Amino acid sequence: MHIVVCIKQVPDSAQIRVHPVTNTIMRQGVPTIINPYDLFALEEALRLRDRLGGEVTVLTMGPPMAEDSLRKALTFGADRAVLLTDRFFAGSDTLATSYALSSAIKKIGETWGPVGIVFAGKQTIDGDTAQVGPGIATRMGFNQLTYVAAICDVDTEKGIVEVERRAEGGVQVLQTKLPVLITMLEGSNEMRRGSLTSALRAANAEITTWNAEAAGVPDVQSCGLRGSPTVVKRVFAPTPRAERAEEIGKPGMSFEELADAAMDEIFARHPTVEADLREFAAGQQEEWR
Amino acid sequence: MTDAPQKKPQPAGGRAGMRKELPEHFKAYRHVWVFIEYEHGAIHPVSLELLGEGRKLADKLGVELAGLLVGGDREELLAAAGECWEHGADLTYLIADPILEHYRNQPYTKALTDLVNTFKPEILLLGATTLGRDLAGSVATTLATGLTADCTELAIDDERSLAATRPTFGGSLLCTIHTLNFRPQMATVRPRVMAMPQREAGRTGRVVEHPLDMREEDIVTKVLRFIADRDSNEVQLAYADIVVAGGLGLRSAENFQLVKDLARVLGAEYGGSRPLVQKGWITSDRQIGQTGKTIRPKLYIAAGISGAIQHRVGVEGADMILAINTDPNAPILDFAHLAIVADALEVLPALTRAFSRRLSVNRLAG
Amino acid sequence: MVEERFDAIVVGAGPSGNAAAYTMAKEGLKVLQLERGEYPGSKNVQGAILYADALEKLIPGFREDAPLERHIIEQRMWMLDDTSYTGVHYRSEDFNEERPNRYTIIRAQFDKWFSQKVREAGATVICETTVKELIRNTQGKVIGVLTDRDEGAVMADVVVLAEGVNGLVGQRAGLRDELKPDTVALAVKEMHFLPRETIEARFNLKGDEGAVIEAMGTVTSGMTGTAFLYTNQESISVGIGCLVSDFKESGEAPYALLEKFKAHPAIRPLLAGSEVKEYAAHLIPEGGYNAIPSLFGEGWVIVGDAGQFVNAAHREGSNLAMTTGRIAGETIVRLNRTRQEFSATNLALYKKRLEETFVLKDLKKYRKLPGFLHGNKKALFGLYPQLVSKAAQTWFRVDGTDKRSKEKEIMAAFRKSRGLGGLLGDAYRLARAWR
Ligand SMILES: Cc1cc2nc3c(=O)[nH]c(=O)nc-3n(C[C@H](O)[C@H](O)[C@H](O)COP(=O)(O)OP(=O)(O)OC[C@H]3O[C@@H](n4cnc5c(N)ncnc54)[C@H](O)[C@@H]3O)c2cc1C
Ligand SMILES: Cc1cc2nc3c(=O)[nH]c(=O)nc-3n(C[C@H](O)[C@H](O)[C@H](O)COP(=O)(O)OP(=O)(O)OC[C@H]3O[C@@H](n4cnc5c(N)ncnc54)[C@H](O)[C@@H]3O)c2cc1C
Ligand SMILES: Nc1ncnc2c1ncn2[C@@H]1O[C@H](COP(=O)(O)O)[C@@H](O)[C@H]1O
After folding, report:
1. Which of the residues A11, A266, B168, C104 has the least number of beta carbons within 10 Å of its own beta carbon?
2. Interchain contact, A203 vs C277, CB within 8 Å
3. pLDDT of residue B13
4. What CA–CA distances, in Å, run from C420 to C277, C423, C427?
5. Same domain for C25 and C163?
6. Which domain holds residue C236?
7. C-alpha closest to that of A89 among A227, A258, A239, A263
8. How far is ligand 3, taken at its centre, from the CA of residue C304, in Å?
9. CA–CA separation, A211 and A216 (whole Å)
């Protein structure tokens, strides 16, 4: 089966800094990584390929330097990589992103064989919307399986997949027909390392690079800023709280005295907490009887 | 000082999308809608929180607030409609069809897009739950409109447009996003980000029913089974009145027991910072913060947690935050209300003792 | 095992490994470079000084696209006691030249750029791959390396060890000794982020001009070591390093020293309000000429820090690394071209050529310095800074005392603390060590 995995290169948000004056992101020196959630999708795709045969194509839309993350995906064992890059794509929101990606997936299917499964991460750590996956499914008319914790069965003959999906308050076991779009839940697997052979192959691999035209995007007006219905009007830093925490206790207090002082302060400031607690304690007492 | 004329502030970008030119066919779009997540016989609290927020938006716009109820059992949905009215809705749109018994993307997407295309709301809000996120993306894509995910603040600007504020870049910054030229303006909000509105008993409203117009054969995805969580912290942690949490300052998995001990005495839920999940000290459903749960308790006790921005955004809604930290300069002291600057490994047991003493004294007296 | 065979394998993608790989790949050799970090430079996250000359010899047009932070127009050399500094500042408009001689860089970005050049030259670069050991044939000749990946062995005609100061591959293979605590310094560094304008205002800079401070004195609490501060575009690198043996002896914690340096009244205002990121520790080989191991053998050569090529007196390292890497590369290219074997006898050419360059000439010149600094550390890093500061203060404080009495007072203070013989002896030995 031919599987496509959408991965995104993101700044390692743990290392992002904000310019204190201009409130802009200081990207200088911030390393980029493959969106961590996408690795679960990629590993799941590789496992399916190893089991069922076929090929895994990784796809990303981003600046030319996003090639790094595609090479990394090849090191892990993906068979092919496609980079979608064009100035028309700049400034895309989730709607425009899913438009461009779904056009490219169609083209990938035409070029290297029909696509049975598209994988996406649960969400990204920069955009953090979890909407691109569902957007791709809708555009392509694929059945959509989000928050998948495990893929139980794939029957390529009958064209059926069965998955466990995280839902509110429990796990749904769902069955649906290929082709599907799956977003994987974190923790569902662990990324493999990749052999030296695949690392060598990845280092020298040709990365297919498509602009909007090459990817067969029908309408560039639907891409990038122009194709994005949402508009970011303001970016700002969270406002600090006016006052800092009041420190409880005086030097030399024992821990018991500190704890008592803290409790008094809590009860004084928030009488309902005290009332709740007394009610709770009384309830416990009832249970005792 | 130079006497060069001051440059006029330019509107950012000056791109087509920045200007509001609402196409003619969107001008009829009116009213604020909230998708009511109704599953397993109950409304998800986030939907009621959104009704509270939606009420404010509708009042500002001078329009009506509607709840959208879709599901399998008409009677149950009608009962739920009452709950919507009591939480601020003026009317409920209702689609009852056995096909909608369990959540599935395809029929739910159709139900919502049909309602939108027929009744034309200007704003549509959904909870950012697993269900809401699954649904919102396909609805927005089908309608080809804008969607702002995980908002922390919603407001109406001077041009009657929805200003949706959300964290970006790992919570280091906030951004305000508008959907100027498309309708409806869609947004999702995580549970507990908005306050639960006061319930107004006896408040009533209207019901508008709509057909689904779909057959089971049209739907390819089947729900084979549903395995309910045995220990569902999913909801409990987010809705607890008191939460006790620990961070890396606790130093070892064993010491986390001190957090649990205090939580037990307080009848509280417990949780922790993300590194604890990564280290396997607690399960991921106990993680508090931007990529974990947002909580809004009356009292939040944070022991050995530095208060990184990603943690902060998940706890800021607490009425009162008590931080226990050895470092008087830890960032958490910038947003906590009370602080004990001391070793959490000593303070936690002392608090456990103090509370049980105070509460059991009362027990003897009562 | 990997089927593909290479002309040369380079272990490490720091400045020395990159220089070697670049030189060979540019000449058409089939080169494989292995780096254990996530990307080249990932293990080297902070600021440093780049000496243009060594890089120019490799990539003459590097200024066009290399991520350079600031070119240095001002050098401050400070001697600190707890409350003061005495210093020399040299600032010159001449450094605002077309092809500046020294730049501040951020290694993570610079190494990445350099590595890109290596790739463009045609080498195969693989990261997140640690070389575990050398593979030898029955005659003991090195014929490849074993990595920590599956199917992890790969063969080549020659292996260049550019694995840095603490490289274990060479040690494990018995090609060089374990590091000795008194020939290696431990440095800790931090990056302090500040808006560009703030940095420029605090250091009186404009555009891409930069300033650096090198400091020694009581901050190291009598240990052999120095502290530094470099201005980058939007950040300041600060660090301090002392001999590992001194840390052991004194029990001082490296980060505590850094805190002390940052809290010094002359340093603190320069860093005020900054956001700190990337605390890191790294070793610097400081054994000098006498600590250099054998540099070549059957099928292998050592370059850069792995060969102890650091001039501690002048804080030069990356330029020696690039130069040794380049010359090793050129030697290998020549042997490859003339179809000669990579035997120890033939690779000896590498060392011979090094002797003709500043690398071995400088290291030879300063070969007595490490011993001198180490032997006189109490005086150099405790007493003298205090005396000098006291002298300056006596001299500059106008308090009604006549100048001659002040001179006497200063001289008396020096003599009392160290004795005339000691002072003269120190001066003499320092001059000898420097010569
Ligand atoms: C994309 C992204 C998403 C993230 N999402 C989340 C999230 O949802 N939730 C979250 O929590 N984090 C999140 N993080 C991680 C976050 O940035 C911080 O790394 C994390 O919150 C720090 O956890 P901590 O406070 O437990 O540990 P630390 O930052 O290491 O702090 C430990 C604290 O304990 C104190 N301490 C030490 N010893 C003691 C003692 N004996 N007694 C008392 N105090 C002591 C220390 O002074 C320090 O303040 C996210 C990060 C990223 C990049
Ligand atoms: C605090 C400090 C400040 C300095 N400041 C300056 C300065 O301002 N100017 C200057 O010129 N020099 C400076 N130096 C010295 C300079 O950093 C070094 O001389 C230079 O980096 C040496 O280059 P190298 O390529 O030999 O080693 P390194 O830069 O250490 O590179 C070695 C590489 O090999 C990799 N590696 C190691 N073992 C393996 C293995 N088994 N398998 C695969 N890969 C491996 C490592 O990850 C690393 O990337 C400074 C050093 C320190 C510590
Ligand atoms: N630019 C992109 N290129 C490839 N895949 C993407 C891109 N943006 C988002 N995705 C995929 O969509 C998922 C959800 O992204 P988001 O909606 O931004 O949270 C990610 O985990 C990726 O799998």
Report:
1. A11
2. no
3. 38
4. 47, 5, 11
5. yes
6. 182-285
7. A227
8. 42
9. 9
Q: What is the mean pLDDT of residues C131-155?
A: 95
Q: Chain A partners of B229 at a C-beta cutoff of 8 Å?
A: 169-171
Q: Model's pTM, two decimal places?
A: 0.81
Strands annotated E in C196-347: 209-217, 225-231, 235-243, 275-285, 296-297, 300-302
Q: Which residue type, as a one-letter code, is found at position A218?
A: P
Same domain, C313 and C378: no
Residues in chain A within 8 Å Cβ distance of C149? 193-196, 199
A199: nearest CB among C38, C108, C149: C149
Helix axes of A271-288 and A255-269: crossing angle, nearest 10 degrees: 110
User: Is B294 near ligand 1, meaning CB less than 6 Å away?
Assistant: no
Distance of alpha carbon C20 from the chain centroid: 18
Q: Which residues of B touch A236 (CB under 8 A)?
A: 173-176
Domain ranges of chain A: 2-222, 255-288
ipTM > 0.95 for the complex? no
Cβ pair C151:A196 closer than 8 A: yes
The chains in contact with chain B, meaning 3 or more Cβ pairs closer than 8 Å, are: A
- Measured CA to CA, the distance from residue C204 to residue B221 in angstroms comes to 68
Indicate the DSSP class of residue C140.
S
Between C89-93, C128-132, C159-163, C281-285, the lowest mean confidence (pLDDT) is in C281-285
- Asked whether B and A share 3 or more beta-carbon pairs under 8 angstroms, the answer is yes
- Give A128-156 pLDDT, tens digit per residue: 788 999 999 999 999 999 999 999 999 99
Residue in C39, C151, C277 nearest the CB of A197: C151
Both tokens of residue A69?
A: 């993350």
Residue of A nearest to C5 (CA): A200
Residue C78 lies in a domain: no
Domains and CATH numbers, chain B: 4-218 (3.40.50.620), 233-365 (3.40.50.1220)
Q: Measured between beta carbons, which residues in chain A are less than 8 angstroms from residue C151?
A: 195-197
Torsion of CA B313, B318, B322, B323, to 10 degrees: -10
Best interface-test mutation with C: which of A69, A196, A201 has the largest number of C CBs within 10 A?
A: A196
Cβ atoms A230, A127 nearer than 8 A = no
Q: How far is the centre of ligand 2, averaged over its atoms, from the C-alpha of C21 (Å)?
A: 15
Token pair, residue B296, equals 């809004």
Whether C203 and C309 map to the same domain: the answer is no
**Interchain contact A287–B (C-beta under 8 A):** no
Q: How confident is the model at residue C277 (pLDDT cuts 50, 70, 90)?
A: confident
Q: Give the Å distances, CA to CA, from A96 to B142, B184, C59.
A: 13, 17, 42
Give the contacts of B148 (CB within 8 A, at least 6 positions apart).
A230, B164, B166, B177, B179, B186, B187, B188
How is B53-92 classified by DSSP, letter by letter?
HHHHHHHHHT--EEEEEEES-HHHHHHHHHHHHHTT-SEE
Task: Point out the ligand nearest to the CA of residue B281.
Answer: 1
Q: What is the CATH number of the domain that holds C268?
A: 3.30.9.90
Name which of A18, A138, A249 is nearest B340 (Cβ-Cβ). A249
Q: Indicate the length of chain A as a whole number.
A: 289
CA of C72 to the centre of ligand 2 (A): 21
User: Is any Cβ of chain A less than 8 angstroms from the Cβ of C279?
Assistant: no
Does C contact B via 3+ CB–CB distances below 8 Å? no
What distance, in Å, lies between the first and last C-alpha atoms of chain B?
76
CATH 2.60.120.260 fits A2-222, yes or no: no
Which chain A residues are closer than 8 Å to C233 by Cβ? 28
The total number of structural domains that make up chain C: 3
Indicate whether A91 pLDDT > 70.
Answer: yes
A86 within ligand 3 shell (Cβ under 6 A): no
B236 — pLDDT class (breaks 50, 70, 90)? confident
